From TrEMBL:
Lineage top rank: taxon: Bacteria
Protein name, UniProt field: Urea transport system ATP-binding protein
Pfam families in UniProt: ABC_tran, BCA_ABC_TP_C
Domain ABC transporter residues, every copy: 6-245
Alphabetically ordered keywords of this record: ATP-binding, Nucleotide-binding, Transport
């Protein structure tokens, strides 16, 4: 029997009479990658905001494994094992790739420790694994400010990896990328499968095809459908509301 990593029960938020998320319920198993799909305004990012604590909900509850985190402050939800990557990367631009990863991997708060002095062996191993997976071995001594857009996004994925959250929320991880960068991002995320439970908001259908295990389609703040790629593509309600006659392409 699978372990449930994230359980959302009747979650919703009301903004002055407008329900941006309306009675959403879903469960995500441990190690699963779930894609949240829907048109602009469907409630995808707002749902991520509710889970991560960025926005307080007005109804419903959220659990991460056996811990209810409903409306906890963001920093406590992060401590409970939820990591989030936003559309705009958040890295230390003046630090190198390796320094960014070392800071992220070190639980000690002292500046010297974070920059690598007395860096524990297990943390060094995590950093090395992340560098290999994100493909930035040749850029380890490059300042984050000098990376391309795609490389910066990959660095932030590496930062999440070394922090080792139980659940990772990714909000449009391929936004602004070239097709080649998008496919490389799919490879990285596929390499993370099983090690983390992931919820991914994304519009790029080619990317979704590369990574999706199960898809939840949102429409007007509600769950419209769930299933695999073929099920979602064939669902007449989804086609009418979002995908159009051509389906996923």
């Amino acid at each position: 029997m699978s372990t449930v990593a994230v359980m959302i029960d009747g979650l919703g938020v009301n903004f002055g009479g407008f329900k941006a998320v309306d009675n959403v319920s879903l469960t995500v198993d441990d190690g699963e990658l779930r894609v949240l799909l829907g048109a602009n305004g469907a409630g995808k990012t707002t749902l991520m905001d509710l889970v991560s604590g960025k926005t307080p909900s007005t109804e419903g509850r959220v659990w991460v494994y056996d811990t209810e985190i409903t409306n906890w402050p963001e920093h406590l939800i992060a401590r409970a094992g939820v990591g989030r990557k936003f559309q705009i990367p958040s890295v230390f631009r003046d630090l190198t790739v390796k320094q960014n990863l070392r800071v992220a991997s070190c639980r000690r708060t002292a500046v010297m420790a974070n920059l690598g002095f007395g860096h524990p062996a297990i943390a060094r191993e995590k950093v090395d694994r992340a560098i290999e997976l994100i493909g930035l071995r040749d850029q380890i001594n490059t300042a984050a400010a000098d990376l391309s857009h795609g490389q910066t996004q990959w660095l932030e994925l590496g930062i999440l990896m070394v922090q080792n959250p139980k659940v990772i929320l990714l909000d449009e991880p391929t936004a602004g990328m070239t097709q080649a960068e998008t496919m490389r991002t799919a490879e990285i995320i596929n390499g993370m499968k099983g090690q983390h439970t992931m919820l991914v908001v994304e519009h790029d259908m080619g990317f979704v095809r590369e990574i999706a295990q199960r898809i939840t389609v949102l429409h007007l703040g509600r769950v419209l459908a769930e299933g695999g790629i073929s099920e979602i593509e064939a669902n007449p309600k989804v086609r009418a509301a979002y995908l159009g006659s051509k389906g996923l392409s």
